[in-house]
Design goal:
alpha/beta, three-stranded mixed β-sheet
């Protein structure tokens, strides 16, 4: 069944997601502040509105993909009063759990339904329609959102109450960030010890060191031809985004009194890497920072 969707935030992630909805036969009315994003959206079959408010007036569902919690809450203040009563709001931004729950409360107070549905899979997954969605909200609202999420992703998991989608996202990405640092440190150590990258990969990928950071997003060129390391670390998932997500995780760790030395240290390392100019590279490029600092340590 065709649904009319308002899509706000048509950038690197939102643009392909909206395009996949159009391909599936849904009517998408979109808006973005960037003219280039709007130009591409038109090519993808999206009807471009003059403003965010206009984009949500006559739609059944509103999907947002924005940079931060302050952007989501600021936009909700504008668009919630303009939407039809009972509109379903799906926020696929990655934001703080507290902000996600505040957005749910605001939507409910305005007479709407909502779920938080952050994603994993990067631009490649957004383009291919293979994203993983982690969803927080009531069971009924999850079921209402799921048909659209199924178009944009291959895995949709209901994580429980409002905000729990964001909770799952930051926990998952904390695992990923720590894993990538561990894998990178192991490769640099192997190099120092005279072990080839291929030999280490062949052992670890078939032993207890096996993980996604190694077998899919391997940080050294060669062993996994499709990894960003073989394309000058052009980002599938940018280090700047990992810095953001680990910052959210660190904030949650501190707020909830969790003793998590590795999670906090990973946040510090990616913050430093981002600040030093690595934010535009794939997050696996942190291996180069580790390698360079290891060389400096010998001098």
């Amino acid at each position: 069944m065709s649904t009319t969707v308002g899509f706000l935030g048509l950038g690197h992630m939102g643009g392909p997601m909206a395009a996949n909805l159009v391909k599936a036969g849904h009517t998408v009315v979109g808006f973005d502040l960037a003219p280039a994003a709007l130009e591409q959206a038109v090519k993808d079959g999206v009807t471009v509105a003059d403003s965010a408010v206009e984009a949500v007036r006559e739609v059944d569902v509103v999907i947002t993909m924005l940079p931060s919690g302050k952007h989501v809450l600021g936009l909700y203040a504008e668009i919630l009063p303009a939407a039809k009563p009972g509109t379903l709001f799906i926020d696929s931004s990655t934001i703080d759990v507290a902000d996600a729950r505040a957005a749910h409360d605001e939507a409910a107070a305005a007479g709407h339904r909502s779920v938080d549905a952050p994603v994993s899979g990067g631009v490649v997954g957004a383009t291919a329609g293979t994203l993983a969605f982690m969803v927080g909200g009531t069971a009924d609202d999850f079921e209402s959102a799921k048909p659209l999420l199924d178009v944009m992703g291959k895995k949709v998991v209901h994580c429980g109450d409002p905000g729990n989608g964001q909770a799952a996202k930051i926990c998952n990405n904390m695992i990923l960030g720590v894993s990538m640092i561990a894998v990178s440190e192991a490769f640099v150590l192997g190099e120092k010890l005279g072990l080839s990258n291929q030999a280490l990969f062949d052992v670890a990928s078939n032993a207890s060191g096996q993980c996604w950071a190694l077998t899919t997003n391997c940080p050294v060129p060669g062993p996994v031809p499709t990894s960003p390391a073989n394309n000058d670390y052009q980002p599938g998932f940018a280090a700047a985004l990992m810095d953001k997500d680990l910052g959210l995780a660190a904030n949650a760790l501190k707020t909830n009194g969790v003793e998590a030395e590795l999670g906090l240290r990973a946040a510090e390392l990616y913050s430093r890497f981002h600040a030093a100019g690595g934010g535009g590279q794939d997050f696996s490029a942190i291996i180069n920072d580790i390698r360079e600092r290891s060389t400096e340590g010998e001098q």
